[in-house]
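Q: Structure for this?
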Amino acid sequence: MRLSRYLPILDWGRRYKVETLASDLTAAVIVTIMLIPQSLAYALLAGLPPEAGLYASIAPLIAYAIFGTSRALAVGPVAVVSLMTAAAVGQIADTGTIGYATAAVTLAFLSGVILLLMGVFRLGFLANFLSHPVISGFITASGVIIAASQLRHILGVPGGGHTLVEIASSLAGSVMQTNPYTLAVGAASLGFLLFVRSGLKPLLMAVRVPEKAAGIVTKIGPVIAVAASIGAVLAFDLGARGVAVVGEVPQGLPPFTLPSFERELVQLLLASAMLISVIGFVESVSVAQTLAAKKRERIDPDQELVALGASNVSASLSGGFPVTGGFARSVVNFDAGAATPAAGAFTAAGILLAAAFLTPLIYHLPIAVLAATIIVAVLSLVDFGALVRAFRYSKADFAAMAATIAITLVIGVEAGVSVGVILSLVLFLYRTSRPHAAVVGQVPGGEHFRNVERHAVITSPLVVTLRVDESLYFANARYLEDRVYQLVAENPEARHIILMCPAVNFIDMSALESLEAINTRLASTDIKLHLSEVKGPVMDRLKRSHFLDALSGQVFLSQYEAFAALDPETAKRAMAGAER
Amino acid sequence: MRLSRYLPILDWGRRYKVETLASDLTAAVIVTIMLIPQSLAYALLAGLPPEAGLYASIAPLIAYAIFGTSRALAVGPVAVVSLMTAAAVGQIADTGTIGYATAAVTLAFLSGVILLLMGVFRLGFLANFLSHPVISGFITASGVIIAASQLRHILGVPGGGHTLVEIASSLAGSVMQTNPYTLAVGAASLGFLLFVRSGLKPLLMAVRVPEKAAGIVTKIGPVIAVAASIGAVLAFDLGARGVAVVGEVPQGLPPFTLPSFERELVQLLLASAMLISVIGFVESVSVAQTLAAKKRERIDPDQELVALGASNVSASLSGGFPVTGGFARSVVNFDAGAATPAAGAFTAAGILLAAAFLTPLIYHLPIAVLAATIIVAVLSLVDFGALVRAFRYSKADFAAMAATIAITLVIGVEAGVSVGVILSLVLFLYRTSRPHAAVVGQVPGGEHFRNVERHAVITSPLVVTLRVDESLYFANARYLEDRVYQLVAENPEARHIILMCPAVNFIDMSALESLEAINTRLASTDIKLHLSEVKGPVMDRLKRSHFLDALSGQVFLSQYEAFAALDPETAKRAMAGAER
């Protein structure tokens, strides 16, 4: 029982049936066809030779099938992680060198080990500190950078850069050398892929193709573009006219590679590996959870960390680069009927066959077509509308998202996501350091108490109640003191101050000292301090201090009890429903 | 009116009266007598020549008198800031060199500018992020380090070090060279000062000296020790027997000094200057607030930043080093009747006279006596009892305090306070990421709802209410989803889930998306999601999103209303007071 928790394959493998095999195989065939051009394209994006993309789509899929808990997740190279790989490795070595490939393999290894450690120590909750606005802003900005970085392949010009600024200035310098044949191939495939994405499905459904099948056909559009463009290169001898093609890709099984353990390299890559791990995990786990929810299944996020860790370690041992669960391919896998992780293992077999036998076929594949595949894939990631929604809903969320987008575009992916996380934490801390606090009164005709500024409630000049809408801790302890003293100054007749605490989830030592100071100071002016609606866990803790002995007033279970005890007449009048 | 806010002297200066002059002068004389040995001692602690201590007690006091808002605060060199100065400057230059003095002056300048900027931009709230446990732990550990660092002067041996480990190993190597005459002088003055501190006041009160006067006399004990030890050195020619004395101290006005603006030096000192600024501000403002509260006065923390900034800049221009408001001397100032900041200016005049005329008198003052003064002063800072209180009250507060103490002692003051601040923030974030959430039921005979596990309350199988005791934000959004799904699994009969939100102080975009996911998922199993007791500001924000349109259930003003509407029978029964 316990072992199957760490090796989910023992669980689903034991109950594997023939019907499942059929649907898993079908799904695997479709995903394989979809994954071949994607793998080649993302290897290009990561700055690696095309075969690295195929290699990264074999062993990692098998590792995930053994350790993963999602039935539909398809792992492999994905756009954002490939971009982050290019950014991290590009700072260390030049594309095409052995150092570059070694660094990529090492990055996958480090990222795998980090994920495994997070899984073993059950640190999956750390991913919760990446807020939605930060993730969404980061992915939008990454999509823009990726699309921009592929433009040079569409134009057939040299160039580079990891930020929008670098890419734009590089393009500006080389755009005059545009190769018209490359541009023609690139633009045509871009147009075709965009049509397949948005126009083909309605068209197929109009001719009564079932929706699911139509959806799947649109996902294999890139394969059609690949085949057609290879035909065009051969027919018109475009290679001789300057259209860059993939060229020779080694035929055979993935090589056995070893990461470098050189201390300097590891130090340079460690921070990037951490970011890639966390971003990859968040992306993968949210896809897996979405798909699991559709079938009322659950995934285990900590075990997902182990599975992704194993996938990355296996990528590093077989000539790959960092991988994670991809959104589009997982949805295709799910829609095509994948019933168990075995579908992933079958997909791996499909890619293995491709690597072993099909690579000569892609010699003439134009790089512009791969670039077009990438551009169309990442355009769906870009969602500037989220920025508008965030602006409407919360300025803090908007600020975090806008900062993440701006810094990712201008400074780089790692700086962008780091600043986003730090900013969202700082904004949260700032918000809790200036809590909302309301003076409350009794809602006529009931025992309920609400804000005097928002509701027609009944108050007493003798008994003033302040509801503090935040846990009391060091950052707002001083603020609480100021607020209470101000309240006393505004209500010279008050003889009782009640702190109503339904929203106080804990009181730390700093705040306890502030409460003691408030109690002493109020007592010296003959005002009693009371508490009401103190929660159980908070009360337990207060009982372990001396505060309750020193408290000049009492602790009441409910605010109504407190009000009724300290000013019975007003409370009775309010209960009777008198409007003030 | 506005100008006097930034120059409080315009306010109190205009209304200055003769009676006030008398009490200010009395206080100034007493504080001057107390401050002379203290200034010399803290200069020694900071690694500077004794006159630097006198200089740091002249111009800064005048600057504070002009800009400060506290009537009793006495600024000047203090123990913890002097220790931090020694730690920061000691990494850059050797004690006694010109570079050391320049670095100290530059540190004061940087710290002054930082404080001024914080004041101008009203960033005083940043100090709130230093929790009590961190400050208290840091001051305890600093006290231990300071006392340990002075032992070598009591023994008359060479040595150094900025951490307890360094100091101990340095002492271990030199303790065999102890000078018996120095030890005799040091031990005698230590014993005398300890007696003055704890035994003299009761003795004086026994012979009917008024309590306040007795308190003040005990504070000038160090002056008696200074005078007596100078006499002893002269009488027994202790200088020739190896007792280190202060030696020649330049006689005259403070010099005009300029900080260095060398980029490298500024970069090296900047982080230290920030820490010194914040720690100095927290120490000073808490003394000022305590004393102001006793007289029902208020201080303005942001103006205090400006005043401390001006004090430090003026210290840097007159051969001083970083200063702040000191606890002991401010209490003496207050008890001696200081009525306005003019007392500080008069104290400055007193120290100026001492620097101009009295320095030849302290030629023969043994350094061991200054060390004894420091040790006795800092022993009152050490409070390991706080560690026990924190342990009893809250493990998180204890962890922050223990880590601060341990790292300050072993690694250093700057690391200690930094780790303490970061750890307390991380623990806070961790706590809010796993909020307390309770299933609640109706307290019989009323409209109040409490935790089913703590109170005898009435519940309904049909309507399950979860009270989430935390604001909903990105770090706990996923946790909330898990908790609700678990609740649904545990209550198969439930048709309504109410999220009771009195403790939810805001809902950010990430949490909003989780709520939408919960709503959709519950709706697909025919369970309605309701909210109750949503606060005004939270409701305002929800209205700006599409969540309320999609919500399958309703939003109720009070939890009782919700329960009564969804399961009227049970609610009525509960209201009637039936025990379950």
